[in-house]
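Sequence design from tokenized structure. All designs in this work follow the same two-part layout: the structure record, then the generated sequence. An example of the structure record is given first.
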């Protein structure tokens, strides 16, 4: 990874399509001027509007599921390809499958 850009960190955020994840995304973009790569199962209108507002230099959306290892690898690759580095992870997504059965 390259040198960390403290004025514009590169962050992966899971579960950014709605609720708390969408709120976190807005904070990262507005207050922290972050470059964000998201991983979410859906791509609703609220998320689309944010992508249109900030553009590909600030946000990359990967559709997928945290329960699928290939999707996790895709979001990491997308972050590195888009921003050249990865400074942090915010693991907000929930699983729909029950654990411990």
């Amino acid at each position: 990874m390259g040198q960390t850009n403290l004025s514009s960190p590169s962050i992966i955020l899971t579960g950014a399509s709605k609720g708390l994840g969408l709120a976190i995304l807005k904070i990262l973009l507005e207050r922290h001027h972050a470059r964000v790569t998201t991983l979410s199962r859906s791509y609703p209108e609220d998320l689309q509007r944010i992508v249109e507002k900030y553009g590909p230099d600030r946000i990359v959306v990967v559709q997928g599921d945290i329960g699928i290892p290939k999707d996790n690898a895709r979001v990491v690759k997308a972050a590195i390809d888009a921003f050249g580095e990865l400074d942090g992870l915010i693991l907000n997504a929930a699983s729909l499958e029950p654990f411990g059965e």
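The chain has a mean pLDDT of 91. We note this feature because it recurs in several other targets discussed in the main text.
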